[in-house]
Task: structure prediction
Amino acid sequence: MSTIIDSGTGVETPEGATAPVRGRRRGSVLRLWLPMAWVALVFAAALLADWLPIPPPNRMDFAAVEQGPSKAHLLGTDLDGRDLLSRLAHGARVSLTVSLVAPAIGLLGGSLFGLLAAYYAGALRVAILAVTDAMLAFPSLVFALGLTAVLGPSLRNVTIALGIMSIPAFARIARANALPLISREFVLAARTAGASDAYIMGREILPNMVMVLLTYALTMMSIMIVAEGSLSFLGVGVRPPTPSWGGMIAEGREALERVPHASLIPAAVMFLTVLSLNLIGDHLRQRHEAKAGGLS
Amino acid sequence: MKRFISRHANQFARRGGHVAIVVTLLAVGTFLMLELLPGNLADSLLGENSTPEELARIEADLGLDRPMGERFGLWTWNALQGDLGRSPLTGEEVAHSIATRLPVSIELMVLAQFLALLIALPLGVLAGYREGSRVDSAISSAAFGVLSVPHFVLGIVLILVFAIALDWFPATGFRPLSDGLGPNLASMFLPALTLALVEAPVYLRLLRSDIATTLREEFVTVARAKGLSDFQVLVRHALRPSSFSLITVMGINVGHLIGGAVIIETLFALPGVGRLLIESITRRDFLTLQGVVLFIGVSFVVVNLLVDALYAVLDPRIGARGRR
Result:
Protein backbone atom coordinates (compact mmCIF):
# COMPACT_ATOMS: atom_id res chain seq x y z
CA MET A 1 0.00 0.00 0.00
CA SER A 2 2.97 2.29 -0.21
CA THR A 3 2.36 3.40 -3.79
CA ILE A 4 1.49 7.01 -3.93
CA ILE A 5 -1.07 8.07 -6.45
CA ASP A 6 -0.64 11.48 -8.00
CA SER A 7 -3.76 13.31 -6.92
CA GLY A 8 -4.09 15.29 -10.13
CA THR A 9 -3.81 12.63 -12.77
CA GLY A 10 -4.25 9.35 -10.93
CA VAL A 11 -1.02 8.18 -12.52
CA GLU A 12 1.80 6.73 -10.49
CA THR A 13 4.79 9.02 -10.64
CA PRO A 14 8.07 7.24 -11.24
CA GLU A 15 10.35 7.72 -8.30
CA GLY A 16 13.09 10.28 -8.70
CA ALA A 17 12.04 11.16 -12.25
CA THR A 18 12.39 14.86 -11.66
CA ALA A 19 14.80 14.91 -8.74
CA PRO A 20 18.37 15.67 -9.70
CA VAL A 21 20.63 12.68 -9.10
CA ARG A 22 23.80 14.69 -8.70
CA GLY A 23 25.17 14.91 -5.19
CA ARG A 24 22.29 12.98 -3.68
CA ARG A 25 24.45 10.39 -1.98
CA ARG A 26 27.19 12.80 -0.94
CA GLY A 27 24.67 15.15 0.63
CA SER A 28 22.69 12.53 2.50
CA VAL A 29 24.94 12.66 5.57
CA LEU A 30 24.43 16.39 5.86
CA ARG A 31 20.82 16.38 4.77
CA LEU A 32 19.46 13.29 6.44
CA TRP A 33 21.65 11.64 9.04
CA LEU A 34 22.86 14.75 10.84
CA PRO A 35 19.30 16.15 11.13
CA MET A 36 18.07 12.74 12.30
CA ALA A 37 20.80 12.64 14.94
CA TRP A 38 19.85 16.12 16.17
CA VAL A 39 16.15 15.30 16.39
CA ALA A 40 17.01 12.07 18.22
CA LEU A 41 19.13 14.09 20.64
CA VAL A 42 16.28 16.51 21.31
CA PHE A 43 13.87 13.62 21.84
CA ALA A 44 16.31 11.95 24.23
CA ALA A 45 16.80 15.19 26.16
CA ALA A 46 13.04 15.65 26.46
CA LEU A 47 12.42 12.08 27.61
CA LEU A 48 15.35 11.94 30.03
CA ALA A 49 15.15 15.52 31.33
CA ASP A 50 14.23 14.39 34.85
CA TRP A 51 17.05 11.90 35.13
CA LEU A 52 19.91 13.84 33.56
CA PRO A 53 22.54 15.20 35.98
CA ILE A 54 21.32 18.78 35.60
CA PRO A 55 19.71 21.14 38.12
CA PRO A 56 15.89 21.37 38.20
CA PRO A 57 14.65 23.79 35.50
CA ASN A 58 13.14 26.27 37.95
CA ARG A 59 15.81 26.36 40.63
CA MET A 60 17.17 29.88 40.84
CA ASP A 61 20.85 30.03 41.66
CA PHE A 62 21.26 33.64 42.75
CA ALA A 63 24.99 33.19 43.12
CA ALA A 64 25.24 32.40 39.41
CA VAL A 65 22.88 34.84 37.67
CA GLU A 66 23.46 35.61 33.97
CA GLN A 67 26.54 33.44 33.72
CA GLY A 68 28.15 32.08 30.59
CA PRO A 69 28.85 28.37 30.14
CA SER A 70 30.73 26.80 33.05
CA LYS A 71 31.28 23.41 34.64
CA ALA A 72 28.32 23.79 36.98
CA HIS A 73 26.06 25.12 34.21
CA LEU A 74 27.11 23.68 30.86
CA LEU A 75 25.23 26.26 28.79
CA GLY A 76 25.23 29.01 31.40
CA THR A 77 22.32 30.49 33.34
CA ASP A 78 19.49 32.89 32.55
CA LEU A 79 18.50 36.19 34.16
CA ASP A 80 17.22 34.42 37.28
CA GLY A 81 20.19 32.08 37.58
CA ARG A 82 18.29 29.09 36.19
CA ASP A 83 20.26 26.45 34.31
CA LEU A 84 19.78 26.94 30.55
CA LEU A 85 20.53 23.34 29.59
CA SER A 86 17.97 22.05 32.05
CA ARG A 87 15.35 24.53 30.85
CA LEU A 88 16.11 23.62 27.24
CA ALA A 89 15.64 19.91 27.96
CA HIS A 90 12.36 20.51 29.79
CA GLY A 91 11.30 23.03 27.13
CA ALA A 92 11.87 20.34 24.51
CA ARG A 93 9.01 18.44 26.15
CA VAL A 94 6.66 21.31 25.44
CA SER A 95 7.86 21.71 21.84
CA LEU A 96 7.74 18.00 21.09
CA THR A 97 4.38 17.44 22.77
CA VAL A 98 2.85 20.19 20.67
CA SER A 99 4.62 19.08 17.51
CA LEU A 100 3.42 15.48 17.91
CA VAL A 101 -0.08 15.91 19.30
CA ALA A 102 -1.28 18.95 17.32
CA PRO A 103 -0.56 17.43 13.86
CA ALA A 104 -2.19 14.21 15.12
CA ILE A 105 -5.36 16.16 15.92
CA GLY A 106 -5.17 17.82 12.50
CA LEU A 107 -4.51 14.48 10.80
CA LEU A 108 -7.47 12.75 12.45
CA GLY A 109 -9.91 15.63 12.10
CA GLY A 110 -8.69 16.57 8.64
CA SER A 111 -8.87 13.02 7.26
CA LEU A 112 -12.36 12.59 8.64
CA PHE A 113 -13.72 15.87 7.25
CA GLY A 114 -11.77 15.54 4.02
CA LEU A 115 -13.08 12.02 3.42
CA LEU A 116 -16.65 13.01 4.23
CA ALA A 117 -16.45 16.05 1.94
CA ALA A 118 -15.08 13.89 -0.86
CA TYR A 119 -17.46 10.98 -0.40
CA TYR A 120 -20.80 12.65 0.22
CA ALA A 121 -22.34 15.33 -1.93
CA GLY A 122 -24.90 17.82 -0.69
CA ALA A 123 -25.31 19.79 2.50
CA LEU A 124 -22.56 18.02 4.43
CA ARG A 125 -19.95 18.77 1.76
CA VAL A 126 -21.07 22.39 1.49
CA ALA A 127 -20.93 22.82 5.25
CA ILE A 128 -17.48 21.25 5.58
CA LEU A 129 -16.04 23.23 2.70
CA ALA A 130 -17.54 26.49 3.97
CA VAL A 131 -16.17 26.04 7.48
CA THR A 132 -12.69 24.96 6.32
CA ASP A 133 -12.62 27.87 3.86
CA ALA A 134 -13.59 30.29 6.60
CA MET A 135 -10.86 28.88 8.84
CA LEU A 136 -8.28 29.12 6.08
CA ALA A 137 -9.47 32.66 5.40
CA PHE A 138 -7.81 33.60 8.65
CA PRO A 139 -4.15 34.26 9.32
CA SER A 140 -3.26 31.04 11.11
CA LEU A 141 -1.29 32.65 13.91
CA VAL A 142 -4.14 35.05 14.69
CA PHE A 143 -6.52 32.09 14.74
CA ALA A 144 -4.32 30.21 17.19
CA LEU A 145 -3.85 33.37 19.30
CA GLY A 146 -7.59 33.97 19.57
CA LEU A 147 -8.38 30.36 20.36
CA THR A 148 -5.63 30.08 22.99
CA ALA A 149 -6.73 33.36 24.55
CA VAL A 150 -10.27 32.05 24.88
CA LEU A 151 -9.30 28.58 26.12
CA GLY A 152 -6.69 30.00 28.49
CA PRO A 153 -2.91 29.64 28.20
CA SER A 154 -1.71 26.14 29.04
CA LEU A 155 0.17 23.39 27.23
CA ARG A 156 -3.03 21.42 26.69
CA ASN A 157 -4.96 24.37 25.28
CA VAL A 158 -2.11 25.52 23.02
CA THR A 159 -1.93 21.99 21.63
CA ILE A 160 -5.69 21.87 21.06
CA ALA A 161 -5.73 25.32 19.44
CA LEU A 162 -2.86 24.48 17.08
CA GLY A 163 -4.42 21.11 16.32
CA ILE A 164 -7.74 22.68 15.36
CA MET A 165 -5.86 25.30 13.35
CA SER A 166 -4.30 22.58 11.21
CA ILE A 167 -7.51 20.64 10.50
CA PRO A 168 -8.56 22.62 7.37
CA ALA A 169 -5.21 22.12 5.61
CA PHE A 170 -5.31 18.39 6.33
CA ALA A 171 -8.93 18.26 5.20
CA ARG A 172 -8.03 19.87 1.89
CA ILE A 173 -5.22 17.43 1.22
CA ALA A 174 -7.35 14.47 2.30
CA ARG A 175 -10.19 15.54 0.02
CA ALA A 176 -7.91 16.23 -2.94
CA ASN A 177 -6.35 12.78 -2.55
CA ALA A 178 -9.62 10.96 -1.89
CA LEU A 179 -11.51 12.39 -4.90
CA PRO A 180 -9.61 10.52 -7.64
CA LEU A 181 -9.67 7.33 -5.56
CA ILE A 182 -13.44 7.26 -5.21
CA SER A 183 -14.03 6.43 -8.86
CA ARG A 184 -11.38 3.71 -8.96
CA GLU A 185 -12.28 0.08 -9.65
CA PHE A 186 -11.49 -1.29 -6.22
CA VAL A 187 -13.88 1.18 -4.62
CA LEU A 188 -16.61 0.29 -7.10
CA ALA A 189 -15.90 -3.39 -6.47
CA ALA A 190 -16.20 -2.93 -2.73
CA ARG A 191 -19.42 -1.03 -3.18
CA THR A 192 -20.86 -3.71 -5.47
CA ALA A 193 -19.92 -6.30 -2.89
CA GLY A 194 -22.14 -4.45 -0.46
CA ALA A 195 -19.52 -2.82 1.75
CA SER A 196 -20.74 0.01 3.96
CA ASP A 197 -19.70 3.61 3.34
CA ALA A 198 -17.66 3.62 6.53
CA TYR A 199 -15.85 0.45 5.45
CA ILE A 200 -15.06 1.87 2.01
CA MET A 201 -13.77 5.14 3.45
CA GLY A 202 -11.77 3.54 6.25
CA ARG A 203 -10.45 0.39 4.61
CA GLU A 204 -10.31 1.14 0.90
CA ILE A 205 -9.66 4.87 0.47
CA LEU A 206 -7.83 5.91 3.64
CA PRO A 207 -4.94 3.39 3.37
CA ASN A 208 -4.21 4.66 -0.14
CA MET A 209 -3.68 8.23 0.98
CA VAL A 210 -2.25 7.72 4.42
CA MET A 211 1.37 8.18 3.30
CA VAL A 212 0.63 11.58 1.78
CA LEU A 213 -1.10 12.67 4.97
CA LEU A 214 1.70 11.35 7.18
CA THR A 215 4.33 13.15 5.12
CA TYR A 216 2.35 16.33 5.49
CA ALA A 217 2.03 15.70 9.23
CA LEU A 218 5.81 15.51 9.39
CA THR A 219 6.19 18.89 7.70
CA MET A 220 3.56 20.20 10.13
CA MET A 221 5.80 19.21 13.05
CA SER A 222 8.26 21.99 12.36
CA ILE A 223 5.45 24.47 11.68
CA MET A 224 3.96 23.54 15.05
CA ILE A 225 7.25 24.02 16.88
CA VAL A 226 7.50 27.53 15.41
CA ALA A 227 3.83 28.23 16.16
CA GLU A 228 4.14 27.12 19.79
CA GLY A 229 7.36 29.11 20.07
CA SER A 230 5.61 32.17 18.67
CA LEU A 231 2.69 31.86 21.09
CA SER A 232 5.01 31.40 24.07
CA PHE A 233 7.22 34.24 22.84
CA LEU A 234 4.15 36.48 22.72
CA GLY A 235 3.27 35.43 26.26
CA VAL A 236 0.10 33.65 25.16
CA GLY A 237 1.44 30.10 25.16
CA VAL A 238 2.66 27.89 27.95
CA ARG A 239 2.63 29.74 31.25
CA PRO A 240 5.87 30.59 33.05
CA PRO A 241 7.70 29.30 34.99
CA THR A 242 7.17 26.16 32.86
CA PRO A 243 10.13 26.32 30.49
CA SER A 244 9.44 26.56 26.76
CA TRP A 245 11.85 27.59 24.05
CA GLY A 246 9.78 30.55 22.87
CA GLY A 247 9.33 31.75 26.45
CA MET A 248 13.07 31.47 27.12
CA ILE A 249 13.85 33.56 24.04
CA ALA A 250 11.34 36.18 25.18
CA GLU A 251 12.79 36.28 28.71
CA GLY A 252 16.30 36.65 27.31
CA ARG A 253 15.10 39.49 25.06
CA GLU A 254 14.85 41.70 28.15
CA ALA A 255 18.62 41.71 28.57
CA LEU A 256 19.87 41.01 25.08
CA GLU A 257 22.70 43.50 25.43
CA ARG A 258 24.07 42.14 28.71
CA VAL A 259 23.45 38.39 28.33
CA PRO A 260 22.90 37.56 24.66
CA HIS A 261 23.37 33.84 25.27
CA ALA A 262 20.20 33.61 27.38
CA SER A 263 18.24 34.31 24.19
CA LEU A 264 20.63 33.06 21.54
CA ILE A 265 21.12 29.52 22.85
CA PRO A 266 17.41 28.63 22.91
CA ALA A 267 17.07 30.42 19.56
CA ALA A 268 19.84 28.28 18.08
CA VAL A 269 18.31 25.09 19.49
CA MET A 270 14.94 25.98 18.04
CA PHE A 271 16.46 26.84 14.66
CA LEU A 272 18.43 23.59 14.50
CA THR A 273 15.37 21.54 15.41
CA VAL A 274 13.16 23.25 12.82
CA LEU A 275 15.88 23.04 10.18
CA SER A 276 16.44 19.35 10.91
CA LEU A 277 12.75 18.53 10.65
CA ASN A 278 12.50 20.52 7.41
CA LEU A 279 15.48 18.70 5.93
CA ILE A 280 14.05 15.31 6.87
CA GLY A 281 10.65 16.33 5.52
CA ASP A 282 12.21 17.61 2.30
CA HIS A 283 14.02 14.33 1.87
CA LEU A 284 10.85 12.30 2.38
CA ARG A 285 8.86 14.56 0.06
CA GLN A 286 11.40 14.10 -2.69
CA ARG A 287 11.27 10.36 -2.20
CA HIS A 288 7.51 10.12 -2.14
CA GLU A 289 6.73 13.04 -4.42
CA ALA A 290 3.81 13.62 -2.13
CA LYS A 291 1.41 16.41 -2.84
CA ALA A 292 1.01 18.79 0.02
CA GLY A 293 -0.89 22.05 0.13
CA GLY A 294 0.54 25.08 1.88
CA LEU A 295 -0.54 26.54 5.16
CA SER A 296 0.18 30.21 5.17
CA MET B 1 -13.93 47.45 -19.39
CA LYS B 2 -17.67 46.95 -19.83
CA ARG B 3 -17.10 43.80 -21.83
CA PHE B 4 -14.62 42.67 -19.26
CA ILE B 5 -17.13 43.10 -16.48
CA SER B 6 -19.93 41.32 -18.31
CA ARG B 7 -17.63 38.45 -19.16
CA HIS B 8 -16.59 38.10 -15.57
CA ALA B 9 -19.90 38.96 -13.96
CA ASN B 10 -20.75 35.34 -13.40
CA GLN B 11 -17.43 34.56 -11.82
CA PHE B 12 -17.52 37.69 -9.70
CA ALA B 13 -21.00 36.77 -8.51
CA ARG B 14 -19.89 33.27 -7.57
CA ARG B 15 -16.83 34.66 -5.82
CA GLY B 16 -19.01 37.24 -4.10
CA GLY B 17 -21.29 34.52 -2.77
CA HIS B 18 -18.28 32.60 -1.55
CA VAL B 19 -16.90 35.66 0.21
CA ALA B 20 -20.28 36.37 1.80
CA ILE B 21 -20.37 32.87 3.30
CA VAL B 22 -16.81 33.12 4.56
CA VAL B 23 -17.35 36.56 6.10
CA THR B 24 -20.59 35.43 7.76
CA LEU B 25 -18.82 32.44 9.27
CA LEU B 26 -15.98 34.73 10.40
CA ALA B 27 -18.48 36.96 12.17
CA VAL B 28 -20.25 34.01 13.81
CA GLY B 29 -16.91 32.53 14.85
CA THR B 30 -15.61 35.77 16.33
CA PHE B 31 -18.87 36.36 18.17
CA LEU B 32 -18.93 32.82 19.55
CA MET B 33 -15.31 33.26 20.66
CA LEU B 34 -16.51 35.54 23.48
CA GLU B 35 -19.62 33.48 24.19
CA LEU B 36 -17.53 30.38 24.76
CA LEU B 37 -15.28 32.20 27.17
CA PRO B 38 -15.22 30.39 30.49
CA GLY B 39 -17.04 32.78 32.79
CA ASN B 40 -18.39 35.80 30.97
CA LEU B 41 -17.14 39.23 30.11
CA ALA B 42 -18.58 40.83 33.25
CA ASP B 43 -16.79 38.26 35.40
CA SER B 44 -13.47 38.98 33.81
CA LEU B 45 -14.00 42.71 34.27
CA LEU B 46 -14.85 42.58 37.93
CA GLY B 47 -12.44 39.96 39.11
CA GLU B 48 -13.22 37.44 41.79
CA ASN B 49 -14.42 39.68 44.62
CA SER B 50 -17.59 40.94 43.02
CA THR B 51 -21.09 41.02 44.46
CA PRO B 52 -23.98 39.58 42.46
CA GLU B 53 -25.51 43.11 42.26
CA GLU B 54 -22.37 44.55 40.64
CA LEU B 55 -22.33 41.65 38.24
CA ALA B 56 -25.96 42.19 37.28
CA ARG B 57 -25.37 45.94 36.78
CA ILE B 58 -22.36 45.38 34.49
CA GLU B 59 -24.19 42.65 32.60
CA ALA B 60 -27.06 45.06 31.99
CA ASP B 61 -24.59 47.79 30.95
CA LEU B 62 -23.00 45.50 28.40
CA GLY B 63 -26.33 44.08 27.31
CA LEU B 64 -25.29 40.62 28.40
CA ASP B 65 -28.70 39.93 29.97
CA ARG B 66 -30.38 39.83 26.58
CA PRO B 67 -30.67 36.58 24.56
CA MET B 68 -27.71 35.52 22.42
CA GLY B 69 -29.44 35.80 19.05
CA GLU B 70 -30.48 39.38 19.77
CA ARG B 71 -26.96 40.29 20.89
CA PHE B 72 -25.44 38.74 17.78
CA GLY B 73 -27.83 40.73 15.58
CA LEU B 74 -27.03 43.96 17.37
CA TRP B 75 -23.28 43.27 17.35
CA THR B 76 -23.29 42.49 13.61
CA TRP B 77 -25.42 45.54 12.83
CA ASN B 78 -23.02 47.77 14.76
CA ALA B 79 -19.96 46.11 13.25
CA LEU B 80 -21.33 46.72 9.75
CA GLN B 81 -21.50 50.41 10.62
CA GLY B 82 -17.93 50.35 11.85
CA ASP B 83 -18.84 50.30 15.52
CA LEU B 84 -17.00 47.48 17.27
CA GLY B 85 -17.97 48.61 20.74
CA ARG B 86 -16.06 50.43 23.48
CA SER B 87 -13.46 48.66 25.54
CA PRO B 88 -14.70 48.50 29.13
CA LEU B 89 -11.07 48.47 30.30
CA THR B 90 -9.55 51.43 28.49
CA GLY B 91 -12.76 53.27 27.59
CA GLU B 92 -11.50 53.59 24.05
CA GLU B 93 -13.63 52.78 21.02
CA VAL B 94 -12.29 49.57 19.52
CA ALA B 95 -12.67 50.83 15.96
CA HIS B 96 -10.75 53.96 16.95
CA SER B 97 -7.89 52.00 18.53
CA ILE B 98 -7.62 49.93 15.36
CA ALA B 99 -7.73 53.00 13.11
CA THR B 100 -4.96 54.77 14.99
CA ARG B 101 -2.70 51.72 14.91
CA LEU B 102 -3.44 50.55 11.39
CA PRO B 103 -1.02 52.91 9.55
CA VAL B 104 1.94 51.48 11.48
CA SER B 105 1.02 47.90 10.55
CA ILE B 106 0.39 48.77 6.93
CA GLU B 107 3.68 50.65 6.68
CA LEU B 108 5.49 47.68 8.22
CA MET B 109 3.92 45.18 5.82
CA VAL B 110 4.36 47.32 2.70
CA LEU B 111 8.01 48.03 3.55
CA ALA B 112 8.54 44.34 4.26
CA GLN B 113 7.01 43.23 0.95
CA PHE B 114 9.11 45.82 -0.87
CA LEU B 115 12.33 44.72 0.84
CA ALA B 116 11.44 41.05 0.31
CA LEU B 117 11.06 41.63 -3.44
CA LEU B 118 14.25 43.67 -3.47
CA ILE B 119 16.08 40.69 -1.99
CA ALA B 120 14.26 37.90 -3.81
CA LEU B 121 14.14 39.29 -7.36
CA PRO B 122 17.86 39.51 -8.20
CA LEU B 123 18.80 36.40 -6.23
CA GLY B 124 15.89 34.33 -7.56
CA VAL B 125 16.56 35.33 -11.16
CA LEU B 126 20.27 34.67 -10.75
CA ALA B 127 19.66 31.23 -9.22
CA GLY B 128 17.16 30.31 -11.94
CA TYR B 129 19.43 31.61 -14.69
CA ARG B 130 22.36 29.58 -13.37
CA GLU B 131 20.30 26.56 -12.37
CA GLY B 132 22.46 23.72 -11.08
CA SER B 133 25.53 25.89 -10.62
CA ARG B 134 27.35 26.58 -7.39
CA VAL B 135 25.80 30.03 -7.14
CA ASP B 136 22.35 28.44 -7.44
CA SER B 137 22.98 25.84 -4.79
CA ALA B 138 24.43 28.46 -2.44
CA ILE B 139 21.41 30.73 -2.89
CA SER B 140 18.92 27.85 -2.68
CA SER B 141 20.51 26.42 0.46
CA ALA B 142 20.55 29.83 2.10
CA ALA B 143 16.86 30.26 1.24
CA PHE B 144 16.05 26.84 2.69
CA GLY B 145 17.96 27.71 5.84
CA VAL B 146 16.29 31.09 6.31
CA LEU B 147 12.87 29.42 5.86
CA SER B 148 13.63 27.48 9.03
CA VAL B 149 14.27 30.57 11.13
CA PRO B 150 11.24 31.73 13.14
CA HIS B 151 10.46 35.47 12.98
CA PHE B 152 11.43 36.21 16.53
CA VAL B 153 14.73 34.34 16.27
CA LEU B 154 15.70 36.26 13.15
CA GLY B 155 14.59 39.52 14.77
CA ILE B 156 16.76 38.90 17.81
CA VAL B 157 19.79 38.12 15.66
CA LEU B 158 19.24 41.31 13.64
CA ILE B 159 18.87 43.35 16.83
CA LEU B 160 22.11 41.90 18.16
CA VAL B 161 24.01 42.64 14.96
CA PHE B 162 22.57 45.94 13.75
CA ALA B 163 21.34 47.57 16.94
CA ILE B 164 23.72 46.33 19.63
CA ALA B 165 27.00 45.38 17.94
CA LEU B 166 27.02 47.90 15.07
CA ASP B 167 24.58 50.46 16.52
CA TRP B 168 23.31 51.42 13.05
CA PHE B 169 19.59 51.25 13.68
CA PRO B 170 17.49 51.49 16.84
CA ALA B 171 15.97 48.24 18.15
CA THR B 172 12.95 49.86 19.74
CA GLY B 173 11.43 53.32 19.95
CA PHE B 174 8.99 53.86 17.11
CA ARG B 175 9.10 57.32 15.48
CA PRO B 176 5.89 58.32 13.69
CA LEU B 177 5.93 59.88 10.25
CA SER B 178 5.23 63.26 11.85
CA ASP B 179 8.80 63.13 13.22
CA GLY B 180 10.05 63.16 9.65
CA LEU B 181 10.57 60.46 7.05
CA GLY B 182 14.21 59.76 7.97
CA PRO B 183 13.73 58.96 11.66
CA ASN B 184 10.52 57.07 10.84
CA LEU B 185 12.21 54.85 8.27
CA ALA B 186 15.21 54.31 10.54
CA SER B 187 12.95 53.07 13.32
CA MET B 188 11.03 50.87 10.88
CA PHE B 189 14.06 49.43 9.10
CA LEU B 190 14.95 46.52 11.37
CA PRO B 191 11.35 45.36 11.86
CA ALA B 192 10.66 45.54 8.12
CA LEU B 193 13.92 43.78 7.28
CA THR B 194 13.14 40.95 9.70
CA LEU B 195 9.71 40.42 8.19
CA ALA B 196 11.16 40.73 4.67
CA LEU B 197 13.87 38.15 5.28
CA VAL B 198 11.26 35.63 6.40
CA GLU B 199 9.10 36.22 3.31
CA ALA B 200 11.90 36.57 0.75
CA PRO B 201 12.85 32.84 0.51
CA VAL B 202 9.29 31.96 -0.52
CA TYR B 203 9.43 34.41 -3.45
CA LEU B 204 13.01 33.51 -4.26
CA ARG B 205 12.27 29.81 -4.57
CA LEU B 206 9.24 30.48 -6.71
CA LEU B 207 11.15 32.82 -9.05
CA ARG B 208 14.04 30.42 -9.30
CA SER B 209 11.97 27.45 -10.45
CA ASP B 210 9.78 29.64 -12.69
CA ILE B 211 12.74 31.23 -14.46
CA ALA B 212 14.56 27.93 -14.80
CA THR B 213 11.48 26.32 -16.37
CA THR B 214 10.83 29.23 -18.72
CA LEU B 215 14.43 29.31 -19.91
CA ARG B 216 14.03 25.75 -21.17
CA GLU B 217 11.09 26.77 -23.41
CA GLU B 218 11.45 26.97 -27.14
CA PHE B 219 10.49 30.60 -27.48
CA VAL B 220 13.46 31.51 -25.33
CA THR B 221 15.76 29.69 -27.73
CA VAL B 222 14.12 31.62 -30.57
CA ALA B 223 14.59 34.90 -28.73
CA ARG B 224 18.23 34.06 -28.16
CA ALA B 225 18.63 33.12 -31.82
CA LYS B 226 17.20 36.51 -32.73
CA GLY B 227 20.21 37.95 -30.97
CA LEU B 228 18.62 39.20 -27.77
CA SER B 229 21.06 39.45 -24.87
CA ASP B 230 20.61 37.22 -21.85
CA PHE B 231 19.45 40.18 -19.82
CA GLN B 232 16.77 41.08 -22.37
CA VAL B 233 15.59 37.47 -22.54
CA LEU B 234 15.36 37.31 -18.77
CA VAL B 235 13.43 40.52 -18.37
CA ARG B 236 11.13 40.29 -21.40
CA HIS B 237 10.46 36.61 -21.72
CA ALA B 238 11.13 35.02 -18.38
CA LEU B 239 10.33 37.58 -15.72
CA ARG B 240 7.01 38.74 -17.12
CA PRO B 241 5.22 35.38 -17.00
CA SER B 242 6.73 34.76 -13.56
CA SER B 243 5.16 37.93 -12.23
CA PHE B 244 1.73 36.30 -12.33
CA SER B 245 2.63 33.47 -10.03
CA LEU B 246 4.54 35.95 -7.89
CA ILE B 247 1.38 38.03 -7.39
CA THR B 248 -0.60 34.90 -6.51
CA VAL B 249 1.93 33.77 -3.97
CA MET B 250 2.16 37.27 -2.49
CA GLY B 251 -1.61 37.18 -2.02
CA ILE B 252 -1.56 33.75 -0.41
CA ASN B 253 1.31 34.94 1.74
CA VAL B 254 -0.58 37.88 3.23
CA GLY B 255 -1.85 35.65 6.04
CA HIS B 256 1.69 34.69 6.93
CA LEU B 257 2.69 38.35 6.69
CA ILE B 258 -0.05 39.39 9.12
CA GLY B 259 0.95 36.69 11.60
CA GLY B 260 4.55 37.80 11.22
CA ALA B 261 3.61 41.43 11.78
CA VAL B 262 2.00 40.49 15.11
CA ILE B 263 5.28 38.96 16.28
CA ILE B 264 7.51 41.69 14.85
CA GLU B 265 5.41 44.48 16.36
CA THR B 266 5.70 42.84 19.76
CA LEU B 267 9.43 42.20 19.43
CA PHE B 268 10.23 45.75 18.29
CA ALA B 269 7.52 47.47 20.37
CA LEU B 270 5.78 49.03 17.37
CA PRO B 271 2.34 50.47 18.12
CA GLY B 272 0.48 48.52 15.42
CA VAL B 273 -2.66 46.41 15.22
CA GLY B 274 -0.71 43.24 16.04
CA ARG B 275 0.52 44.76 19.28
CA LEU B 276 -3.04 45.84 20.07
CA LEU B 277 -4.07 42.21 19.61
CA ILE B 278 -1.43 40.94 22.05
CA GLU B 279 -2.13 43.74 24.54
CA SER B 280 -5.84 42.96 24.49
CA ILE B 281 -5.08 39.31 25.24
CA THR B 282 -2.67 40.01 28.10
CA ARG B 283 -5.03 42.64 29.58
CA ARG B 284 -7.94 40.23 29.11
CA ASP B 285 -9.70 42.98 27.18
CA PHE B 286 -11.83 40.55 25.21
CA LEU B 287 -14.07 43.08 23.52
CA THR B 288 -11.03 44.67 21.85
CA LEU B 289 -9.68 41.22 21.03
CA GLN B 290 -12.97 40.33 19.34
CA GLY B 291 -12.94 43.52 17.26
CA VAL B 292 -9.31 43.14 16.22
CA VAL B 293 -9.73 39.47 15.25
CA LEU B 294 -12.81 40.27 13.16
CA PHE B 295 -11.00 43.19 11.54
CA ILE B 296 -7.95 41.10 10.64
CA GLY B 297 -10.11 38.29 9.26
CA VAL B 298 -12.17 40.58 7.07
CA SER B 299 -9.10 42.50 5.85
CA PHE B 300 -7.48 39.23 4.89
CA VAL B 301 -10.53 38.21 2.85
CA VAL B 302 -10.62 41.62 1.17
CA VAL B 303 -6.92 41.47 0.29
CA ASN B 304 -7.35 38.04 -1.24
CA LEU B 305 -10.31 39.30 -3.23
CA LEU B 306 -8.22 42.22 -4.51
CA VAL B 307 -5.40 39.88 -5.50
CA ASP B 308 -7.87 37.70 -7.41
CA ALA B 309 -9.31 40.74 -9.17
CA LEU B 310 -5.83 41.99 -10.04
CA TYR B 311 -4.98 38.57 -11.35
CA ALA B 312 -8.09 38.43 -13.55
CA VAL B 313 -7.29 41.89 -14.94
CA LEU B 314 -3.66 41.04 -15.67
CA ASP B 315 -4.26 37.66 -17.23
CA PRO B 316 -7.50 37.47 -19.23
CA ARG B 317 -7.16 33.72 -19.69
CA ILE B 318 -7.71 33.12 -16.03
CA GLY B 319 -10.99 33.79 -14.30
CA ALA B 320 -11.60 34.91 -10.79
CA ARG B 321 -11.29 31.39 -9.42
CA GLY B 322 -8.36 30.41 -11.56
CA ARG B 323 -5.73 30.50 -8.89
CA ARG B 324 -7.15 27.62 -6.93
Observations:
- The domain at 30-46+75-295 of chain A is CATH 1.10.3720.10 (MetI-like fold).
- Residues 32 and 282 of chain A are 9 Å apart (CA to CA).
- The interface with chain B takes residues 20, 22, 130-131, 133-134, 137-142, 145-147, 149-150, 152, 222, 226, 229-230, 233-236, 246, 249-250, 252-253, 256-257, 260, 263-264, 267, 270-271, 274-275, 278, 282, 294, 296 of chain A (CB under 8 Å).
